[in-house]
């Protein structure tokens, strides 16, 4: 069966509908952070902190263990992402993580100082 034989209405263009709307606060914050370089600075700081606290080494170790278990030729990047994502997020974002307040406060400070 040919797809061209199906008579469907055109899919609405999401971007066209968004043109008339004001950007959401989250979008404004994101734009301001990119323009000021703050987003890149925080990303680099996050990379450094993840290395310092051993999180990166732990994720690398999980990948190696999984690859050894399944065999190097039987593992895809998607498999590794699927395996380590729950552990990685669980380790980094729990309420008892000493870095969590730092990131919340950094974001709050930026929004209050530069956006609002």
TrEMBL record:
Task: Write down the InterPro entries for this protein, in alphabetical order.
Answer: TF_ENY2, TF_EnY2_sf
Gene Ontology BP, a term: transcription elongation by RNA polymerase II
* Region feature (Disordered): 1-22
The UniProt GO MF terms for this protein read: transcription coactivator activity
Question: What keyword terms does UniProt attach to this protein?
Answer: Activator, Chromatin regulator, mRNA transport, Nucleus, Protein transport, Transcription, Transcription regulation, Translocation, Transport
What does the UniProt entry say about where the protein is found? Nucleus, Nucleoplasm
Keyword Protein transport part of the UniProt annotation: yes
One Pfam family name is: EnY2
Q: Which GO terms describe its cellular component?
A: DUBm complex; nuclear pore; nucleoplasm; SAGA complex; transcription export complex 2
**Superkingdom in the source lineage:** Eukaryota
Looking up Gene3D superfamilies in the UniProt record yields: 1.10.246.140
* Function per UniProt: Involved in mRNA export coupled transcription activation by association with both the TREX-2 and the SAGA complexes. The transcription regulatory histone acetylation (HAT) complex SAGA is a multiprotein complex that activates transcription by remodeling chromatin and mediating histone acetylation and deubiquitination. Within the SAGA complex, participates to a subcomplex that specifically deubiquitinates histones. The SAGA complex is recruited to specific gene promoters by activators, where it is required for transcription.
Q: How does it assemble?
A: Component of the nuclear pore complex (NPC)-associated TREX-2 complex (transcription and export complex 2). Component of the SAGA transcription coactivator-HAT complex. Within the SAGA complex, participates to a subcomplex of SAGA called the DUB module (deubiquitination module).
Q: Which family does it belong to?
A: Belongs to the ENY2 family.
The name this protein carries in UniProt is Transcription and mRNA export factor ENY2
């Amino acid at each position: 069966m040919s797809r061209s034989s199906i008579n469907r209405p055109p899919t609405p263009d999401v971007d066209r509908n968004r043109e008339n709307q004001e950007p959401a606060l989250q979008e404004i914050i994101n734009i301001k952070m990119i323009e000021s370089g703050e987003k890149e600075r925080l990303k680099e700081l996050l990379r450094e902190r993840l290395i310092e606290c051993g999180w990166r080494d732990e994720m690398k170790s999980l990948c190696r263990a999984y690859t050894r278990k399944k065999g190097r030729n039987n593992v895809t990047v998607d498999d590794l992402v699927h395996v380590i994502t729950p552990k990685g997020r669980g380790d980094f974002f729990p309420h008892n993580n000493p870095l969590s307040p730092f990131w919340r406060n950094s974001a709050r400070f930026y929004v209050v100082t530069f956006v609002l």
